[in-house]
Amino acid sequence: MKSFTSLCILVWTTSITASPFHYSNSISIEDAAKQGLIKLIIKGKGGFTGKVIEMKIKNNTTRSLNLKLEAGRRLDSKNNKEQDILVTQAQELFVSANEQKKLDINGMCCQAGNACPTANADYLVGIMADTNLIKLAEFIDKNKYYENYTAQQAVWCISDNKSLASIYGGDKDIVKNVRSYVSLVTGKPIPSYNITYRQEHDSISIGRPLKIEGIFDYNLNATGHITLAIFNSEGKIVQYICKELAHNKGEHKIYYTFRTKDLPEGTYYARMTNNGRIEKEMKIEF
Question: Which of 136, 260, 274, 275 supports an S-S bond with 209, CB 3.0-4.6 Å?
Answer without folding.
Answer: 260
